[in-house]
Amino acid sequence: MRALSVIAALVVWHLCSVNHVSLIVSFENVPNPLRVGEQLFYLLGTEEFYTHIGVSFWRIVLSFCIASVLGVLVGILMGRSRVVADVMFPHIEILRPIPAVAWIPLAILMFPTEESSIIFITALGAFFPIVLSTMHGVDQSSEVYVRAAKSLGAGKLDILRHVVLPGALPSIMSGLAIGMGVAWFSLLAGEIISGQYGIGYFTWNAYSLVQYENIIIGMLTIGGLGTASTWLVKQASKPALRWQENER
């Protein structure tokens, strides 16, 4: 059913493009899937296209690792400490709605290189869903289990390790998966800074040069890589959540 849905979308796209449909949305300048496919086949034979993908993938890996470590740590502290939550939560709520594009001028001023600016913007986008999901997961830990662990002589670290974190893992893993998707979204904005490589830069440069096929290829590449990365995060989280399957 999902494959048929994708095929149907391609057929609709093709018919709208070749017939130059112009109703609410105009397809007059949108290339049809066959032209996009031909251009993609050509790009797959060039080294530059793989360089763009490789550079973006490296930026995503580094940014996501930074966001994951900081997001999980801060989320745990906010979930377990009312003082930390009162100090950190207002800042997170104020900064979270700011889109990645709006951070570009400040990132250029704050960081010495373009590369560090891109990493900052991408990591910042992934940080917010991770920290909020972690905080809510930790905050919703069952007090019955916590009190039971205390009655058995467990200390704070034991409770955190054996009670709180296992209970919060589903929320943490969901936050990581969402954060990966947001990281790719933020990367496109961050790579506008870069004048050399990256799939976001490739897409923006195609727009500047009026290369319509490359615009669509860049968009679909970002979507495909983002979907694959999110799937990898979900697969990596399955061993940690195996206890859920046993309960079912």
From TrEMBL:
<keyword id="KW-0812">Transmembrane</keyword>
<keyword id="KW-1133">Transmembrane helix</keyword>
<feature type="transmembrane region" description="Helical">
    <location>
        <begin position="118"/>
        <end position="138"/>
    </location>
</feature>
<feature type="transmembrane region" description="Helical">
    <location>
        <begin position="215"/>
        <end position="233"/>
    </location>
</feature>
<keyword id="KW-0813">Transport</keyword>
<feature type="transmembrane region" description="Helical">
    <location>
        <begin position="94"/>
        <end position="112"/>
    </location>
</feature>
<feature type="transmembrane region" description="Helical">
    <location>
        <begin position="50"/>
        <end position="74"/>
    </location>
</feature>
<dbReference type="Pfam" id="PF00528">
    <property type="entry name" value="BPD_transp_1"/>
</dbReference>
<keyword id="KW-1003">Cell membrane</keyword>
<protein>
    <submittedName>
        <fullName>ABC transporter permease</fullName>
    </submittedName>
</protein>
<dbReference type="GO" id="GO:0042918">
    <property type="term" value="P:alkanesulfonate transmembrane transport"/>
</dbReference>
<feature type="domain" description="ABC transmembrane type-1">
    <location>
        <begin position="53"/>
        <end position="233"/>
    </location>
</feature>
<comment type="similarity">
    <text>Belongs to the binding-protein-dependent transport system permease family.</text>
</comment>
<keyword id="KW-0472">Membrane</keyword>
<dbReference type="GO" id="GO:0005886">
    <property type="term" value="C:plasma membrane"/>
</dbReference>
<dbReference type="InterPro" id="IPR035906">
    <property type="entry name" value="MetI-like_sf"/>
</dbReference>
<dbReference type="InterPro" id="IPR000515">
    <property type="entry name" value="MetI-like"/>
</dbReference>
